[in-house]
Amino acid sequence: MTASVPLRVTCSLITWLSLYTWFCHRFKHCSYEWSCRLVALTHGVLATCLSAYVGFIDGPWPLTHPGSPNTTLQVHVLCFSLGYFLFDLGWCVYFRTEGALMLAHHMVSILGITVSLALGESAAEVNAVIFGSEITNPLLQARWFLRETGLYHSFTGDVVDFFFVALFTGVRIGIGAWLMYCELVSPKPRWYIKVGGVIMYVVSWVFMVSICRFARRKSMKKYHAWRNRRSEELYSETNGHLKSH
């Protein structure tokens, strides 16, 4: 790992800490989690855009070039996200807001990025994993903010939930399986990079199980609410046309 990489990661960490401090000052009447979620939302949007550009435009393509040498732009993006994950992991541990699964997800992400930077290779697929992980993050944060502001049980909340489930299923599970297959069959990536990819995909499936349970519960509630409304409408219509004897 070159000497400039730790410096970039440190600058990234300081930037996220500074942004969090500014949010805390700007929204001092809100909770600390509110400010942390704003930081997470900011990183989610920026990381998705940057990793998409690196993966789809700048290259190399992660599905055909896993294990390839890191490019300068890939290193910048990895350092950018590594600083955030270090900040968020520290925040979650300090405030004890997340369970073991989310902490494991963060630690595997930090380890994977660090190993890729140290080896000088495999940034293509690591960057792709960041894209898949962060593309649903803005929607996840939007769900939390809608709950906090009392707007979750609305049409907007339903739209956010729909796109969150659709993106998670299509990108993290569907495209994630394709990426993992390409990673495993390629002879270039190191074996521990492959193990890290499998672990991240397994973690995604654990999240997916919880999401499926949530989607089923919400769908059933919506269905029963619709049936109740329909029954009330039919009763009102029928009662309104009853003939008096």
UniProtKB/TrEMBL annotation:
TLC domain segment(s): 29-220
Domain of life: Eukaryota
SMART domains: TLC (SM00724)
Keywords from the UniProt entry: Membrane, Transmembrane, Transmembrane helix
GO cellular component, one term: membrane
Protein's UniProt name: TLC domain-containing protein
Organism ancestry: Eukaryota, Metazoa, Chordata, Craniata, Vertebrata
Membrane topology value: Multi-pass membrane protein
Cited PROSITE patterns: TLC
Transmembrane segments annotated in the record for this chain: 6-24, 36-55, 75-94, 158-179, 191-212
Organism in which the protein naturally occurs: Pelusios castaneus
Compartments (UniProt record): Membrane
